[in-house]
Amino acid sequence: MAALNAAQKSQVYRILYRLNLSFARIVDSCRELHGTGVFTSNFTRLYQAFAQELQAEINEEVLDILHGIETDDLNRFGKVRDARDKELRDPDDVFIHAEERRKELAKQSKKQPRGRKRAG
User: Fold this and answer.
1) Among 57, 69, 110, 112, which residue's CB has the most CB atoms within a 10 Å radius?
2) Could you tell me the sign of the dihedral formed by the alpha carbons of 113, 114, 118, 119, in that order?
3) What would the pLDDT profile of 39-62 be if each residue is shown by its tens digit?
4) Backbone phi, psi, residue 5, to 5°
């Protein structure tokens, strides 16, 4: 599926919300019909299960598609953030991080029992 803009994604999420709300109403209506005596307990459970199964299938399909779209957006927009972070980064930060890492490694080597070499 092609990328969706923000308005299109919002529309899909709204439609999915309304669809799920409708399924909840179907399940409730089956319970109400049972309360009037029109549906037996078995038919009530059966029709509720049919509705909830269809709801789950639709949700799974839509959410699988949306997951792919959201992942693509996360990667695309993340590149913008990464570029901006790179612009703002102080070139001397690399030396600060190197010193912090050296201290961390020194602390780790002190914690290891004597006579044993670190793996890897």
Assistant:
1) 69
2) negative
3) 999 999 999 999 999 999 999 999
4) -80, 175
> Tokens 């001397």 map to which residue?
92
pTM value is 0.66
**Residues present in the chain in total:** 120
Q: List the one residue out of 12, 14, 9 whose CA is nearest residue 70.
A: 9
**HSE-up of 76 (CA within 13 Å, CB side)?**
9
Two tokens, residue 1: 């599926």
DSSP-derived secondary structure letter, 33:
H
What is the rounded distance in angstroms from the CA atom of residue 70 to the CA atom of residue 63? 10
Dihedral over alpha carbons 99, 100, 103, 108 (to 10 degrees): -140
Query: Do 54 and 60 contact (CB within 8 A), yes or no?
Result: no
Residue-wise pLDDT for 93-116, tens only, equals: 778 888 889 999 998 888 876 655
**Angle at which helices 6-36 and 41-88 pack, to 10 degrees?**
160
